[in-house]
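MODEL INPUT / OUTPUT PAIR
PAIR INDEX: 1
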Amino acid sequence: MTYRGLYQSGLCLIMDRGDRIKPAFDSAVSAIGSGVKWIQLRDKTSDRLQIFKTSRVLRALTLANGVKLIINDYPDIALAVDAEGVHIGQDDMPIKYVRKVFAKKRHIIIGVSTHSVEEAVRAEEEGADYIGFGPVFHTTTKDAGSPKGIEMLSKVLSQVSIPVVAIGGIVQENVKLVLEAGAHAVAVASAIMESEDIGMAAAEFVDAVSNRISTNLVTR
């Protein structure tokens, strides 16, 4: 699967559910209206039934608008709502078993969260379609350890051949640094989801990422 086909705009919106943000449907409508083409649902607080219900709503919306939907942590829910894929962490079900869940679904995207070169290399060897690497910068959205920095991101990029999505503390002020390091895409949560105007915040990231991606495609 090609980079352009998988990542489109190069921006993944992490819909991190919590008390601080607007309803999922409203947030997704605003983001999609601003050009977001890839949404990832990450809900660490709701029960499985609520996550399933949210996923169904988001799937109907994303399908109608040509947007990719990835579900965090739950391969069964991703399969049930016919999402494009699932994203798993280091403590979740191994990739080979996730593939079995989707045995009858021909095209499925499996992403893996990684926090070191070793984890990134292992994820590729085990069959991940892409890896999320981070946190690149300090973040309060998720407890994923100390910031890894641009230098470590560059090392990961040099050691794997699958797409690398940078995540963690990415804001307008540093997104350019991440993309210049070679990241294929960026995943953004709080900088968009906790904004007073989600649509405007999303549009700013879409513009910044799209401009950088276009420049990279020309210079590569």
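PAIR INDEX: 2
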Amino acid sequence: MKVAIVTKISFLLLFLVLPIKVFSDPLKTPDLSSQPLHIVSDRVIVDEKSASIIFQGHVLVRQADITISCDRLTVYGKKRTKPNPKGSILKQIDRIEVEGNVRVVQGNRMASSQKAVYDLNNQKIYLMGNPVVAQGKDRLTGQMITIDLKRRKSIVEGGSEKPVEVILYPSKNKTDVVK
């Protein structure tokens, strides 16, 4: 039973990695890099001095079956002395911050928070501000959720104001539980 619960929680967190993980580890996940990335927002600000691109207002990002919505998405580039036209875009990004009503949906899996940060250097994703990860009826909440992509480890932190809470419903099929 303990293995099934750990597996179910890990599976809930795994889908959060897919939109980003496909670019850094294409051998272990489906290749979405050939799928178009469609971003819609009310406003875009490209700031070469701070090496950032800011999408503001009703931001909607779609790629394949993954949808991300938020109020603001900021992509911070690595500061360098000269441009690197041959380098991949992933190597030129330092971090991505998503703020305000953050929601990531893929099929029956969903994650939401007030802020999410993807630190490419440390290969970590941080969900802050009432983070919730759900698959179907199953839910995982806490104060902060950290996903360490290098170590394939997730940490859910709670506190006196917002403890960690896990709600898992029994599987109806034996095939629903991954061993």
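PAIR 2 NOTE: The chain has one domain: 2-171.
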